[in-house]
Amino acid sequence: MKKFGNFTVYIIDDDAAVRHSLTLMLTQQAMTVESFESAEEFLEHDLSHWKGCIITDLQMPGLDGLQLQEALNKRACMLPIIFLTGYGTIPQSVKAIKAGAVDFLTKPVTREKLMVCIASAFADYENKLRAEDNAQRARDLLTKLTGREREVLAFVVQGLSNKEIAAHLGISHRTVEIHRSNVMQKTGAMHLLELKQIALESSQHKLPH
């Protein structure tokens, strides 16, 4: 039976029977599960170190599933969301997917279908973690640069030549060459494409772990 590391499935549903049946189904698949009876209860927690995915109902008292999704997006929460509802509409499903949901399922759902969705959600979460790790490494590299080196870097990634950069900054062509060499050395970039990738990754929005 496949193991899922330290990932957890967070179930949010006001129906206790649904929470129980989903918990039973997933624990039988060697998954760790935590359940909540409302979006408000879930949002009371510090989610910054929680890892895995969310399965949530759409229609719930208080905050509904879409409002929960909106609240989580405002927190820049990385936990992927799977909607599981008995009363979803096409406009609701479109809105959920556009806002980043992994899938929008209707009850009842088969074990096979749900497991495929959860696997996809876990993969999505891992990709987000990897992207944020790369972004943080890139930001760490760029902290080594001086202010002038950052200015040169910005022009370099735009494709400007040393002569054009010198004209923009009012410095000599030779000085640009020195700054450019320092940038390559400090970032460890071996070529322009790698340098552009570092600059791009460093600009990605920082997300909580």
In the sheet with the most strands, the strands line up as 2-1-3-4-5
Largest sheet: 5 strands, parallel
Strand content: 5-15%
Alpha-beta classification = alpha/beta
- Domains counted in the coordinates: how many? 2
SSE topology string? EHEHEHEHEHHHHH
> How far apart are the termini?
28 Å
| CATH topology category name of the largest domain | Rossmann fold
Helical segment count: 9
Overall residue-averaged pLDDT value: 90
Uncertain residue ranges:
none
Amount of helix:
40-55%
Radius of gyration: 23 Å
CATH architecture of the largest domain: 3-Layer(aba) Sandwich
Number of strands: 5
User: Would you state the CATH class of the largest domain?
Assistant: Alpha Beta
Topology:
Elements: E1 8-12, H1 16-27, E2 32-36, H2 39-43, E3 52-56, H3 65-74, E4 81-85, H4 90-98, E5 103-106, H5 111-142, H6 147-157, H7 162-169, H8 173-187, H9 192-202
Parallel strand pairs: 1-2, 1-3, 3-4, 4-5
Descriptive overview:
By secondary structure, the chain is α/β, with parallel strands linked by helices. It folds into 2 domains: 8-134, Response regulator (Rossmann fold), CATH 3.40.50; 144-202, Arc Repressor Mutant, subunit A. It contains 9 helices and 5 strands. It has helices spanning 16-27, 39-43, 65-74, 90-98, 111-142, 147-157, 162-169, 173-187, 192-202, and strands at 8-12, 32-36, 52-56, 81-85, 103-106. It has a 5-stranded parallel beta sheet, with helices on both faces. β1, α1 and β2 form a beta-alpha-beta unit. α5 (111-142) crosses α9 (192-202) and α7 (162-169) packs across α8. The radius of gyration is 23 Å and the shape is elongated. The two termini are 28 Å apart. 25% of the residues are buried. The mean pLDDT is 90.
